Amino acid sequence: MPRSVAAHRGAVVELLTRQAARKGTEELPLLDAIGRALAADLRAPVSLPPFANSQMDGFAVFSADIPDGGAELRVGAPVPAGARPAALERGFAVPIMTGAMLPKGADAVVPIERAVPSVFPAAGAVDALVRLPATAPGTFVRDAGSDIAEGALALAAGTSLGPAQLGLLAALGLTSVEVRSPLRVLLVTTGDEVVEPGNPLVTGKIYDSNGTLLEASMRQAGLEVVRNGISDDDPAGLLDVLRKHTDNGSAVDLVVTTGGVSKGAYEVVRQAMAGEDVEFVPVAMQPGGPQGIGTFNDVPFLGFPGNPVSCLVSFEMFLRPALSEVLGAPRPRQMLPARLAEPLTSPKGKHQVRRGIIENGVVRLEGGAGSHLVHALARSNALIQVPADVTELQAGDEVEVWVL
Ligand SMILES: Nc1nc2c(c(=O)[nH]1)N[C@H]1C(S)=C(S)[C@@H](COP(=O)(O)OP(=O)(O)OC[C@H]3O[C@@H](n4cnc5c(N)ncnc54)[C@H](O)[C@@H]3O)O[C@H]1N2
Ligand code: MOO
To answer: How far is the C-alpha of 293 from the C-alpha of 295, rounded, in Å?
Structure first.
């Protein structure tokens, strides 16, 4: 009985949870922390904004100085951004620039466009007057701490740090941040037929796309990737590579291989793992059905199938979500409902993952179901999820898509 996608994902989560618990944290300069997960809850060391300030270029006023019909007020000394202004005198309006500190005694800002005249008096002008409309207290004032108050929770442990989160930390005055240390992965592609790009393509051989595809996926997800070339179909050679990288305990946190897991005569990964704590399970998913999982030399092990699309789908369906769950980073893929632009069929009892392009809530298929179709994959921006109990869908039917 094949294992469900959810059950296999759960097994990958369990495998990584133990390993992640052994990893520590590290302090990094903000920009080096992009894509990492925050190690601990972080409280705001200062309030944002730190002081009440103006949201507009205009006049800071005491709202009670302006009756319903408006009033003519005397113009005081202007407040540029960055200055510490003197208190506002009653009956005065002071020119204030966006972001500048509100003078004590002021409680509202009237934008320059609503003033008559609607220009600031020239520098050095004396006895200038301005006519302003009535204004409710608080208008165009950004109160101190209205974004976040000092001591409040700024970001929770496990938050994935993207540009917005790092920008917040900078706004709070921080220059570095404590993040979870990344997992280091040994990625080994296998197969006698597979050659490194850049070499001549001898008849019967193909270039290794899995190595680049998966290393790129892993790096984007915040993993450190160790490579050791391509292993041929000799199990002893593959075992040597795996031992070299796992023997000294902490060298790698996870091993991922590609290929050699199905039912052929030369299944190098299956053969190498005979006698190890690794099982080969059929998962009710297409592509990416045959999966290896377990530990090698006490290090978590995942054996992805050899077809390139199967590799990407295995990564997106199992490893990436498990990393999100266990480490907090990367952020989970955005999942959207979309209408199918065309019909599709799906094998009975298997969760199918098709590739497609989503645009304005409609998703169209790119290429067929074949797991060798890397060109179609490269044109796609979404994975279309077809549940195991669905065998046919019509144009216009709603599906869930994961945005790549
Ligand atoms: N009799 C059966 N045959 C197959 C079954 C099955 O159930 N019964 N399952 C099929 C499915 S589904 C998949 S997926 C593949 C999985 O095969 P393996 O993991 O053993 O992978 P390989 O046989 O080594 O390769 C499969 C395919 O992918 C190409 N490949 C391999 N490595 C790379 C690489 N690094 N870069 C690019 N392409 C690669 C390889 O040449 C094969 O075409 O098994 C089916 N067969
Ligand atoms: O499961 Mo295979 O990965 O369909 O091609």
So the answer is: 7
Tell me how far apart the alpha carbons of residues 84 and 55 are, in angstroms, rounded to a whole number.
16
The CA distance from 398 to 201, in Å, is 43
Instruction: Write the ipTM.
Output: 0.97
For 5-24+181-327, CATH number out of 3.40.640.10, 3.90.1150.10, 2.40.110.10, 3.40.980.10 equals 3.40.980.10
Pairing of β 58-61 and β 108-111: antiparallel
- pTM for this one? 0.90
Q: What's the whole-number average pLDDT of the chain?
A: 96
How many angstroms is it from 253 CA to the middle of ligand 1? 25
Those residues with Cβ within 8 angstroms of residue 393's Cβ, 6 or more apart along the chain or in another chain: 340, 343, 344, 345, 346, 386, 399
Please list every protein residue whose CB sits less than 6 Å from any atom of ligand 1.
Answer: 189, 191, 193-194, 206, 208-211, 258-264, 267, 287, 289-290, 305-308, 310, 371-372
Ligand nearest to the CA of 232: 1
Tell me which DSSP letter residue 356 carries: E
